[in-house]
Structure formats: structure tokens, C-alpha cells
Write a structure and sequence with these properties.
This is N-acetyltransferase. The protein is globular and about 45 Å long. Strands 1, 2, 3, 6 and 8 form a five-stranded mixed sheet that branches. Strands 4-7-5 form a three-stranded antiparallel sheet, covered by helices on one side. The protein has 184 residues and is α+β, with helices and mostly antiparallel strands. It is built from four helices and eight strands, in the order ααβββαβββββα. Helix content is 20%, strand content 28%. The chain binds coenzyme A. Coenzyme A binds next to α1, β3 and α3.
């Protein structure tokens, strides 16, 4: 489902389905916040959370990130993504997490309340800010004392192309196509 949701969406093909595979075995994965959406027993949506940090010198703040978030193509635009987000944000708040920082679709997440990280004095690990780098507080002012550089789990950077290609053999073959709007 994740492969179908992301295939050719942002890049030629995708690797998010392999990320799902790796993340669920990873020490940083947080299953108690992650959820799937089911319709008549079929998985039509999925959101996976993992541990992340905002580091300011010796101050290390434990926060969370999510990704991938995916909705099956035929169910996109029906509110499933928003439902998964709102439900899991409640869970994360209930477990005492202060905030969520993500790299995500800059035109989608602001409707849920995400703001770019420059609003929180948070930068990427190499000191950058851009539209796709966003955060949300899980309670009022819960991130007011959190600033610094954002680090997500290493699993996000450990998706070699050859491993993705090998993993693709487990699924029906999809054609790699170029579309306008892809990021690269
Ligand atoms: C992005 C995604 C998770 C959103 O979930 P969804 O269930 O389709 O979206 P919702 O039904 O909650 O919200 C629908 C609204 O969001 C908008 N929207 C959906 N995807 C969007 C996107 N990529 N960019 C901007 N707006 C988007 C829709 O136009 C719709 O707007 P409207 O209510 O004004 O008509 C889903 O479309 C998806 O899986 N996309 C492919 C994978 C992906 O890009 N994941 C996110 C990567 S950060």
C-alpha cells in the first residue's frame, strides 16, 4: 500500500515501502504511536512514528517524528490521512511527547496546524530551514523551551538503492515514470 501510494509521486519510483520494512525492526520505531487505517479488513492508510531529537549544545530534547504517512491511492482525499494524524497526535500528547518535527509535503500539513521550523528556532542538522521542514506542538507552548538542530533516526538515511531494488521484487512490478511535480 505504501509503495502504491508513493510510487512516482515525489521521485522516480519510491523507497518509502522499504523504509516501512526497515523502520518496524529499528530501535527508534515507536509502535505504540503508529497506526494503520482499515476498511473492510483492507489496509488503506498507515502512519509510522519514530524517536528523534532536537539538540542544542549539551541539551538533548527527545521528540518524535513520523513518516511515511500514506493513504491508498483510491482512498486519498477522503480524510484518512487527517484522521490518522489527529488520532496519533492525541496518542503522542497523551504519552507526554512535546512536539513532532517532520520533513513533509508543505502544502498538506499546515491545514493540520504544522508550521515551518523557523517558528520554533529549530533547524536541520546542517542549520537549514525550508518549507517542507515543519513542526507542531502537542500542547500549548510545549515546545517553547525546545530549540536547536533536528536529528531523525539513522534508518531514514540507510536505504541503499540496491536494497530497495531487491525488496521491490517482493511486490507486483510498477513502472518508473517521470511526471511534472516530482522533486527530482
Ligand atoms: C498526502 C496524504 C497522506 C494525504 O492523505 P489523504 O487522506 O489523501 O488527505 P486528506 O483526505 O486527509 O486531506 C485531503 C485534503 O488534502 C489535500 N491534499 C492531499 N494530498 C496533498 C498534497 N500532497 N499536497 C497538498 N494537498 C494535499 C487534498 O487536496 C484535500 O484538500 P481539500 O480538503 O481542500 O479538498 C495522501 O494523499 C498520500 O498518501 N499521498 C501519497 C504519499 C505522500 O505524499 N505522503 C505524504 C508525504 S509527506
Amino acid at each position: 500500500m505504501t509503495k502504491e501510494a508513493f510510487w512516482n509521486k515525489h521521485h522516480l519510483g519510491c523507497d518509502e515501502h522499504y523504509l516501512v520494512h526497515k523502520l518496524r525492526e529499528d530501535k527508534d520505531y515507536i509502535p505504540e504511536l503508529s497506526r494503520i487505517a482499515l476498511k473492510n479488513g483492507e489496509v488503506i492508510g498507515c502512519i509510522m512514528y519514530s524517536k528523534a531529537q532536537v539538540v542544542d549544545g549539551l541539551d538533548i530534547h527527545e521528540i518524535v517524528t513520523f513518516g511515511p504517512l500514506s493513504v491508498a491511492p483510491k482512498w486519498q482525499g477522503c480524510g484518512v490521512g487527517e484522521l490518522l494524524l489527529r488520532e496519533t497526535m492525541k496518542l503522542a500528547a497523551g504519552k507526554g511527547y512535546k512536539g513532532i518535527v517532520i520533513f513533509g509535503e508543505p502544502d498538506y500539513y499546515p491545514r493540520i496546524g504544522f508550521k515551518t521550523c523557523d517558528n520554533f528556532n529549530i533547524t536541520t542538522s546542517d542549520g537549514k530551514n525550508f518549507d517542507a521542514f515543519m513542526a507542531i506542538e502537542l500542547a500549548q507552548d510545549s515546545m517553547k523551551d525546545i530549540k536547536g538542530k533536528f536529528y531523525e533516526s539513522e534508518v531514514f538515511e540507510n536505504l541503499p538503492k540496491e536494497e530497495v531494488e531487491e525488496y521491490n521484487k517482493n511486490f507486483p512490478k510498477l513502472k518508473k515514470l517521470r511526471f511534472p511535480g516530482q522533486w527530482d
